[in-house]
Amino acid sequence: MDSEVPGPPAAPVAMARQRLPLGVGADGAFTRRGVVFACALGTIAVFLFFPLGILGIVLSSMGMNRVSTKPEAARKLVAWSWAIWAVMDSILFLGVVAALISRS
């Protein structure tokens, strides 16, 4: 009866560390900070910029579903959703500031 002779341990394979989307954990769920920002920005965007706010939510959802299978595509989708929300909320903020300044 031949027994196998243990060899040297296999060298670990070096894999490039995948960067996760902003505010999304490795399991595809929002981090605590991501939940706060997504809720605030998404709510403002949906109520004040209806069609584009929904687009941001759809892109974010698609990205979160792809975190485990296609992390790079997930990063792009979630980044686009954050960009949509940030631009819309910035426009709203500038509009409010302009309205307040014009009243003075």
Question: Which characteristics define this entry?
Answer:
single chain; 104 residues; mainly alpha; 3 helices; 63% helix; elongated
Q: Into which percentage range does the β-strand content fall?
A: under 5%
- The overall average pLDDT, rounded, is 77
Shape, principal axes of CA atoms: elongated
In percent, how helical is the residue content?
Answer: 55-70%
Could you give the distance between the termini? 95 Å
Can you walk through the features of this model?
With 104 residues, this protein is mainly α. The chain has a domain at 32-103. It contains 3 helices and no strands. It has helices spanning 32-48, 50-65, 71-103. Helix 1 (32-48) packs antiparallel against helix 2 (50-65) and helix 1 crosses helix 3. The protein is elongated and about 55 Å long. The termini are far apart.
Concise description?
By secondary structure, the protein is mostly helical.
Please render the helix and strand layout as text.
Elements: H1 32-48, H2 50-65, H3 71-103
Helix pairs in contact: 1-2, 1-3, 2-3
